[in-house]
Amino acid sequence: MLMMTAQVTTEILCSDQRHLLWDGAAVARKFYNRTFQLRTGNFEFDRFGAVYGRDYLLQQFGQSGQLTLLQYIPAEPFQMGEVRSVEWPGPLWPVPNRPVCGYDGQDRVCWASSVQYIETAVASAATLLVIFPLMALVLLRLIREHSDKLPWWLISGNSPQMCSGKRILSCFGSARVLRSRHAIAE
After folding, report:
1. Which InterPro entries has this protein been placed in (predicted)?
2. Choosing a second label site near 21 at 20 to 30 A (CA), which of 50, 71, 128, 136?
3. Distance CA 20, CA 26 (A)
4. What distance in Å separates the CA atoms of residue 17 and residue 149, rounded to the nearest whole number?
5. Residue 13 φ then ψ, to 5°
6. 186 residues of the chain, pLDDT tens digit each
7. The predicted structure's pLDDT at residue 185
8. Are 53 and 43 contacting, i.e. CB atoms less than 8 angstroms apart?
9. CA dihedral in degrees (137, 138, 141, 143; nearest 10)?
10. Nearest to 87 by CA among 102, 105, 115, 68
């Protein structure tokens, strides 16, 4: 039905009758009195919209990938006639009608156990116990290398000065009074 609807919609758009897309009855009339030739077979609608022909149950899972007729439904007796059996592509066919973890993925079967959480916490803590000391060592090493490059050991020309034998500037620039025995004796 999807392919037939797509074909009718394309015809409406190509014939520049877009206003018909807003009118469901007009779109339905485009299906009347015509035959649709599809990959799955021909579908014919009469002037009232009734379908003529057989309905099919086809399969495409086969080795060739081609459509294979499995069952047909004739128009009059409405009884399904089997042509051949269905070939399922795997051992678990038909697939279960409910997902393993439920439709929302929250079934108890899929919940992680508390053991997994404990293992994850222990592994994370052990990793952090290794990473943080290593980062601290690297940081201390970088600070030490940076401080080794500073010229703290250079003495400027006017740092240690004797002013009349009583003052000297220390390396930190503060003046101190030096008193010798001679200065005290005077």
Report:
1. Peripla_BP_I (IPR028082)
2. 50
3. 6
4. 83
5. -70, -40
6. 778 888 888 888 899 888 888 888 888 888 888 888 877 777 888 888 887 766 777 777 666 667 777 777 776 666 777 777 777 667 776 777 887 788 887 787 777 666 678 888 899 999 999 999 999 999 999 888 887 777 666 666 665 555 444 444 444 444 444 444 444 445
7. 47
8. yes
9. -110
10. 68
Tracing tokens 């807003």 back to the chain, one arrives at 22
- Half-sphere exposure at residue 118, Cβ-oriented, CA atoms within 13 angstroms: 3
Per-residue pLDDT, 49: 80
- CA-based torsion, 102, 105, 110, 111: positive or negative: negative
Do residues 36 and 7 lie in contact, with contact meaning Cβ atoms separated by under 8 Å?
yes
Q: Which residues pair with 58 in a beta bridge?
A: 69
Tell me the Cα Rg of the chain: 46
Backbone angles phi, psi at 142, to 5 degrees: -65, -40
- Residue-wise DSSP of 20-74: GGG-HHHHHHTTTTEEEEETTEEEEE-TTS-EES-EEEEE--SSS-S-EEEEEE-
